[in-house]
Amino acid sequence: MSIWKVVPQVYRGMAAFQAAAAEGLDPVIAELVKIRASQLNKCAFCIDMHLNDARKMGESQLRLDLVGAWEEAPGLYTEKEQAALALTEAITRLDGGTPQGHFVPDAVYERAAKNFDETELAHLISQIIAINAWNRFQVATRAVPASLQQSEPR
């Protein structure tokens, strides 16, 4: 299904939400967040798109290759990027929970709050929620990654 052709008003709403979420957020952090959430959600369409976008922004191939194992790559990501990636994983997975009933662990939230001012943190959370929504649309409708549409897979 080409969902965006069937319900273009939903696409317009998502695009507006995405644009608002991205305001004031470091574009590198935004792309890392989009890539990591898309990996967790197994969204090939979005992984392909955001890896390409990050490369166009000048992101190094090494950082892109290791974003899925960012915790095991000391020194490769800044503390701020690590805090964003940890929050991305917590919000995307929403698993486990704490005895207080929080599904985003306090330590993860507090780490993000230490690295982002309140407005940045609000944008970061919004960006994480936006990419999770995009992932679900693309996975549910079996969107084919642009790179696979343009050439034969290797």
The averaged pLDDT comes out at: 94
Largest sheet: none
Task: Please write the string of helix (H) and strand (E) elements.
Answer: HHHHHHHHH
Structural class estimated from helices and strands: mainly alpha
Roughly how much helix do the residues carry, as a percent range?
A: 55-70%
Alpha-carbon distance between the termini?
A: 25 Å
Let me know the number of strands. 0
Strand content: under 5%
Oligomer: single chain
Low-pLDDT runs of 5+ residues are none
Note the overall shape: globular
Total helices: the number is 9
Radius of gyration: 16 Å
Describe the protein's architecture and organization.
- The chain is globular.
- With 154 residues, it is mainly α.
- The protein starts with a helix and ends with a helix.
- It is built from 9 helices and no strands.
Topology:
Elements lengths: L2 H4 L1 H15 L4 H14 L3 H13 L4 H6 L12 H15 L12 H10 L2 H23 L5 H5 L4
Give a summary of the structure in a few sentences:
The protein is mainly α and 154 residues long. The protein contains nine helices and no strands.
How would you describe this structure in keywords?
single chain; 154 residues; mainly alpha
